[in-house]
Amino acid sequence: MGVEEAEEEEMNILTYNLRSGGKRKGETSWEKILKELSPDLVFAQETFDPSTYLAPEKQLHPEDSIIWQETSVGWGSAIYARKAEVTPVAVPKFEGWVVGGKIERDSYSLLTDKPLFVFSVHTPSPGPYDKKALSILDAIKKISGDNECIIAGDFNITAAIRHPSEELKSSKLSNEFITRMRKEFGLVNSWQAINPNQNLPQTLRWNRNQDAPYHCDGIFIPLSWVQHIEQCTILNSEYWIKMSDHNPINLKIKC
Predict the structure, then answer these.
(1) What is the pLDDT of residues 173-187, one digit of tens each?
(2) The pTM is what?
(3) Where residue 110 sits, what CATH number does that domain have?
């Protein structure tokens, strides 16, 4: 490489609750995600087996990995990794709702010199959700240890800290969840990290109140990665709104 600087690379991360399987009127969110967004990592919830839709010729690369586990209702959570091998990691008591994996540093060594643990989280229904979300953190901590993690998904609780002036309020346990993410895992909500003085935007259009800015989805990344964020966008085009009652969150990091 000589004296030339290495070209910066970009890590493109997405989390999305596809809603009841992820198929609407013959279309599938998975094909749209890969074709239009070209993600490196996808954390999906409420999806049928992605392999059902993603035959090898529809994947971005033959080296892509997919891990998925279903719940008792037929859909589940999944992780998709582009050109990287993800070793499944069991998360006891939350099978199908939480899918975990480990990516060795030779696959994604861009921002960490350790294995990267990744978790796609969907706090189980029905509620109340706060204590379940905290129990998920207990389970993940036993698995990940001191390694760096990305924890992303639909947490079914407010996934960031609200300003006192916001109409919707976070529960005490929701705030404890955010605090534990930071103190125990060293993780922060990527959207809020680069939008610290903004009210939380909507990521869920709850069928009982589709206008309220429920913000239950998020991508939590190591604090040291924040300086590398290029953008974190909540996608709200007509297509994504049609496909699910959740909005995808798309994070791009320069490495």
Answers:
(1) 999 999 999 999 999
(2) 0.92
(3) 3.60.10.10
